[in-house]
Specification:
This protein has about 90 residues and is mainly alpha-helical. It has helices at about 1-15, 25-40, 45-90. Helix 1 (about 1-15) crosses helix 2 (about 25-40) and helix 1 packs across helix 3. The longest helix is centred in the last third of the chain and has 44 residues, at about 45-90.
Length: about 90
């Protein structure tokens, strides 16, 4: 659950700003998740959550990069197909 929250916050940041968060922005991500944790009455040390985030963010970023690249390729193929269809219908 906590890992999912961290991943969601990280992904949301990247989708919104199209870049990796800076260090101070990473703190905001962890703080946001810590608020959710405390709201649920869960006790876990801040350092543990921050360390987990630090270990996982690279993997999450690479996965997002792959998703973006796959999406770009799909859109490129759709564009190429639409261009071909446009050229054949204008004859």
């Amino acid at each position: 659950m906590i890992a999912e929250w961290l991943r969601e916050e990280y992904r949301s940041f990247i989708m919104m700003y199209l870049r990796k968060p800076k260090r101070y922005e990473e703190e905001y991500i962890v703080d946001s998740v810590m608020e959710r944790i405390h709201a649920r009455g869960i006790w876990i040390p801040y350092g543990e959550v921050k360390a987990y985030f630090a270990r996982k963010k690279g993997k999450w970023y690479r996965k997002l990069e792959n998703e973006f690249e796959d999406r770009r390729k799909e859109e490129e193929q759709m564009y190429i197909k639409s261009e071909r269809m446009g050229k054949t219908t204008h004859k």
